[in-house]
Fold:
Amino acid sequence: MTRTEPGSAGPTLAVVARAAAVSIPTASKVVNGRQDVAPETRRRVTEALEALGYVRRPRLTPRQPPPVVDLVVHSLDNTWSGAVLRGVEEAAHQAGLEVMVSAGLTRTRGGRPERGWLDRLALRGTSGVLFNLAELTPTHHAWLEQHRIPYAMIDPVADPPPGVLTVRAANEPGAHSAVAHLLALGHVRIAVIGGYRRKQCSGARVAGYRAALAAAGLRPRPEYIRYANFDTDLARERTRELFALDEPPTAVFACSDPMALGVYQALAELGLRVPRDVSVVGFDDLPEAEWVTPALTTVRQPLGEMAATALRQLLRIREGRVPPDTRTELPTRLVERRSTAPPQGAFA
Structure:
């Protein structure tokens, strides 16, 4: 099967049905999310839809969109999503909208994102969609454009196409402030644990780390730069690797609070104390930053404000008021607590 070239009208349902060896009504049932289709038949049709790049044709939409805004989050089981949801809900309440929450794009079948959520969205309509920490594929972007559904991305993991509304934190300046704080305390052996190597926010935070060292006349040591995919357990492993070095760091900048918790865990297992032996700085300022002992020094990114800003700008676009710059960056600030101190312990 051959994908339709970008910009063309796309394959018809008849083409999809022929590729899947089913009738047009059966293919239509799968596209519309009907349940009365055999699993094997549904699989064949779904594979044909994906392989051909089928995009449902836009429906005639009512003049007034439904009073609902959709929030699609990366995960529903963390405090990050809770902070984003609060920001969206407050702004939506002021605008007279309800919020529909989903983790739809994280669900996969056969290694590919499920189409069901997008298809249901087309059927019921929406005033707009906010994607948080999502990485949309070119097919997702094309689908949203074809259906004329306004959307915005909150802290996208990769740069979207030009013209897509985005709101993110000032990641590089925030990371720079974290490392500058450690330098001001007298640390020179500072390690960093980044998120994903190729994700935008992670790259910006590691760049801020490098820039702060350069401003102090220091060159980053390659063995002090590790990546843990924003995962607590991986950060714990990377920390153990750092402190197995002949010359361990005296401070660790973790590019997210969950990774900073992994640093805490590894240091405790190694019998090292925070901040006497090792200073630790995180990034996010999630509630967990104040729950741990000692309370975590971290970079606050305004998650609720980012979410509310994205919704307000989305509604302006819906009304035809397109902003001159579709990319917004909100400032971060360092929140000093008790996890940092001048080097004085085992490795000073």
Summary: The first helix runs from residue 13 to 20. The radius of gyration is 23 Å. The chain has a mean pLDDT of 86. DSSP finds twelve helices and 14 strands in the chain.
